[in-house]
Here is the input.
Amino acid sequence: MSTPRQRMARPALRTSLTPSTRIECSGAHPARRVRCKRARHHRPRVGACRARTSKGLGFLVAYPARTARANGSKCWNWFRTDDQARGRGEPAMIAGIVGEVAADYRVDPQRVFVAGLSAGAAMAVILGETYPDVFAAVGAHSGLPFGAAHDMGSAFTAMSTGAQRNAANSSGRGDTPAVSTIVFHGDADHTVAPGNGQAIVRDATAGTTQSSTHAGVAPGGRAYKQEVFVGTAGQPRVEYWTVHGAGHAWSGGSKRGTYTDPSGPDASAEMVRFFLQADQERL
Here is the structure.
């Protein structure tokens, strides 16, 4: 394997890891990396993106946390235009951290994934749009599409009634395919309207075809619907999980955490499976 410096140019902004960024290794020499973005007041250790899911799979997981100085609610500022573009704001900061970690650990730069809940999911979507050369796949749970808002007022409108902008047109991506994306959203979410999850899927499925729909019941008792969309070569590109009756919470998360719903399908496990599947499709 060539070194990270040989295979990936470091983003222009280099930023040192802060005490609020926690790194966990599930293997001695991790080849893959997942960057998990928490929502406000979420406990990354026991809730979303739990390291137990990646145990034995050679993942290195980073859990960044925003400070109150950057955002009063300790959320990612997904609604600000300065934080929705490549080369500046929070996307550049996060891409810089990825480059730094890739240089310090044995990380394959083609196997970097990002996932998040709520504001973290909205930022994960932004990273997929602005740094598709850095992030190979996106996991968005209870989030919002790219370009959903431009200030605090429009953010609350998008959260309550759904995004009004066409995210695919506002991204500047044009005809370039979106990165592989898996979306989870509860259809009883009263914090971030379910229409936002549908909008993420619409943007990500451009140029794809729906290939299958599966309805099931999770071991915890909550029903769900899984939709799979494939690309022109028949490879899975997008998955959309609707969790029936679920609110604003990470599906299948530990009951010890906050903003988790243990009764739903295991979103952490399904996202890791999806990331590994996307990884294999590129080989």
